[in-house]
Design goal:
The protein is α/β, with parallel strands linked by helices and 316 residues long. The protein has two domains: 2-127 and 264-305, Ribonuclease Z/Hydroxyacylglutathione hydrolase-like (Metallo-beta-lactamase, Chain A), CATH 3.60.15; 133-259, Rossmann fold (3-Layer(aba) Sandwich), CATH 3.40.50. The protein is built from eight helices and 17 strands. The strands form three sheets. Strands 5-6-7-8-9-16-17 form a seven-stranded mixed β-sheet, with helices on one face. It is globular, with a radius of gyration of 20 Å. The protein starts with 6 loop residues before the first strand and ends in an 11-residue tail after the last strand.
Length: 316
């Protein structure tokens, strides 16, 4: 943002960075100064150590140079925000990553009408229409109860997805202890420190196969086929991701129980959001840019692809 001399989610160290959320492809270390929500700054400190950060609460407006800046919820993960900028009578909204469906672990997306909407398009193809989250959690629980001698090992991104799966399980009445991989522990604790109730959690370290039988175990996707998983009681391998809509992706990861649960907007949510905001221009940052651009053009909305690199979506 040139009039404010600031960069949004820069991929390299900058003197002034505005960060939409804590995932590593958006929040990087080494910036001179960081403007972000308190939750995002806390996540960055867990991952990178102390930050020279300025916390900004949702709906708080600050002036940077000649630009009025406001952060509003994006519904992606804890602390995630859209950045609303107003300059010389024009309003630009940078969505960061977002979703429209409810999530017990974070504030819901707030639509802000604007002149220019800068959006992601991770699942920007009509084939990507995510099912209801509750139905996917019910499938998980059905598989868990079908064979109490096994556990269900769920691959879930350590920040956001893991905690969401836990809270969604609690919302469906699953009150039993949930086991977790050590890589998730600090982020679980951080979520709880911000008031997200996760229930009884147990570390897999030191637990016996008998203790973990009939339980849900949550781990980062990279641990699903790792030596670590050998300590588990004949696990049913599951993965929670929007990419599980594509069967080939599930087969490539040897996933027995694909769960289509995403922290990104699907095709219908992307197009619904653009209709709702009624921007005169849409800038598409990363993902399946061409299809969303074509949809915009057919609806008489000017659109362009930014083709930004360095924003990963494999583990959603």
């Amino acid at each position: 943002m040139r009039p404010a001399d600031a960069w949004i989610d820069p991929s390299q160290s900058k003197a002034r960075a505005w960060v939409t959320h804590g995932h590593g492809d958006h929040a990087r270390s080494g910036h001179g100064a960081v403007l972000a929500t308190p939750e995002t700054l806390a996540i960055m400190e867990v991952r990178y150590g102390p930050q020279r950060g300025q916390p900004i609460a949702y709906d708080e407006t600050i002036r940077v140079g000649d630009v009025d800046v406001r952060f509003v919820p994006a519904g992606h993960v804890l602390g995630s925000a859209q950045i609303v900028m107003e300059y010389k009578g024009e309003r630009i909204v940078v969505s960061g990553d977002y979703k429209r469906r409810p999530d017990p672990t974070c504030a819901c997306f707030v639509p802000v009408p604007c002149d220019v909407f800068v959006t992601e398009a991770t699942f920007g193809l009509p084939v990507f229409r995510h099912p209801e989250t509750g139905s996917e959690i019910d499938r998980l629980l059905h598989r868990l109860h079908a064979d109490p001698s096994r556990c269900v090992l769920v691959g879930a991104y350590a920040l956001g997805k893991a905690q969401r799966i836990i809270t969604e399980l609690r919302a469906r009445g699953h009150s039993e202890p949930i086991y977790f991989h050590g890589a998730i522990e600090r982020l679980n604790q951080l979520y709880e420190s911000f008031g997200v109730e996760l229930g009884e959690l147990r570390h897999t370290g030191g637990a016996t196969k008998q203790e973990m039988a009939g339980r849900v175990v949550i781990a980062p996707p990279g641990a699903l086929n790792d030596r670590w998983s050998r300590r588990l009681p004949d696990p049913v391998t599951a993965m929670a991701s929007g990419w599980m809509r594509i069967r080939q992706r599930a087969r490539q990861r040897n996933v027995e129980l694909p769960l289509v649960i995403s922290d990104h907007a699907d095709w219908d949510e992307l197009t619904m959001t653009i209709r709702e905001l009624e921007p005169t221009e849409v800038w598409i940052t990363h993902g399946r840019e061409e299809a969303l651009k074509h949809w915009c053009m057919t609806h008489q909305i000017k659109a362009c692809e930014l083709n930004l690199v360095g924003y990963e979506d494999e583990d959603d």
